[in-house]
Specification:
CATH architecture of the largest domain: 3-Layer(aba) Sandwich
Function: NAD-dependent lysine deacetylase and desuccinylase that specifically removes acetyl and succinyl groups on target proteins. Modulates the activities of several proteins which are inactive in their acylated form.
Number of strands: 8
Catalytic activity: N(6)-succinyl-L-lysyl-[protein] + NAD(+) + H2O = 2''-O-succinyl-ADP-D-ribose + nicotinamide + L-lysyl-[protein]; N(6)-acetyl-L-lysyl-[protein] + NAD(+) + H2O = 2''-O-acetyl-ADP-D-ribose + nicotinamide + L-lysyl-[protein]
Keywords: Cytoplasm, Metal-binding, NAD, Transferase, Zinc
Number of domains: 2
CATH class of the largest domain: Alpha Beta
Order of helices and strands: HEHHHHHEHEEEHEHEEH
Family: Belongs to the sirtuin family. Class III subfamily.
Structural class: alpha/beta
CATH superfamily of the largest domain: TPP-binding domain
Number of helices: 10
Shape: elongated
Distance between the termini: 16 Å
Bound molecules: adenosine-5-diphosphoribose
Helix content: 25-40%
Radius of gyration: 19 Å
Strand order of the largest sheet: 3-2-1-6-7-8
Strand content: 15-25%
Subcellular location: Cytoplasm
Amino acid sequence: MAVAARWVATARNIVVLTGAGISAESGVPTFRDAQTGFWAQYRPEDMASREGYLANPAMVWRWYEYRRELVAKVRPNAGHEALATFEKLHGGDFTLVTQNVDGLHQRAGSADVLCLHGNLNAQAWLDTPRDCCHLDWAVAGDPPHCDRCGNLVRPAVVWFGEALPIKILGRAQHAAEHCDLMLVVGTAGAVYPAAGLARLASRVGARVVIVNPAPSELDDAADLIVRSSASVALPWILGTGDGRIAA
Ligand code: APR
């Protein structure tokens, strides 16, 4: 971790890409760990898609309600907090990109979070909204819907097969192309284009540091691998945990 801390202290422009692993220690199950309890029988890939929603809207809606309720009960951990502190100290030279939809970075105090996959606590319409579709007037239910045209409310998250928010992805790619250090924290690196940001940074000559207790599909792109949990490694690497401030 000392090498990573030194790279942080000497870097000009840092990007951090996070995945579900940074929230694991807050109690939010990751995607590729076994789903817990009732949901263990379902694959997220089957539910987090338009087809999955249309096939069983009530069940998928309840899965998102379960995740919203779970996230509401947990708290950001030391990994989220270290990133929020670092942003305050190094805002101009720091970009935080997340695949997570749980909002824990924002609750830890990170102000400018590039959310590639949307926001679990926001809602949208499944089909293009008509004049009669107002989220505030949606009829309650599993799922809520428009009482005029029947349009279904959906979570404002990016489902498999859907495009990422183009402006946010563009900002993330620009940051990856212009950084000299990228920390890749708590992601299996299995889902693109998010995982491609690490390869993009590596291609332009940035140092890539992976923080993950287990192997990931991005390990081959790493200049350094820190086999540790995010909540332990990030305060240390970012110099925000023990009062040391990265230069
Ligand atoms: N600290 C750091 N990493 C951790 C920790 C921890 N405490 N605990 C687990 N991890 C790592 C796991 O080893 C794994 O590599 O976090 C990673 C979680 O991987 P996934 O569950 O695949 O989550 P993620 O990579 O964020 O998934 C990307 O896939 O399902 C879609 O849209 C969804 O955003 C998600 C995307």
